[in-house]
Amino acid sequence: xxxxxxxxxxxxxxxxxxxxxxxxxxxxxxxxxxxxxxxxxxxxxxxxxxxxxxxxxxxxxxxxxxxxxxxxxxxxxxxxx
Length: 81
Known about the structure:
15% of the residues lie in helices and 27% in strands. The chain is α+β, with helices and mostly antiparallel strands. A 5-stranded mixed beta sheet has the order 2-1-5-3-4, with no helix packed on it.
């Protein structure tokens, strides 16, 4: 199955802002996250995470099954002053 992944304001250009990513049928969000760390390093993760525009917390990732065409967005933690 194919996921659509958006990387927002990552600071370094690890990959394009939007890409498609293939996973095995029945994969979870944790499976995707683990795969992205292996492929791009830990800096690909952290911060805000959404699936189909719904906020997801990291502790929910192992139980969240992904489906073909899901849109996952990753953004780094925000800071300011």
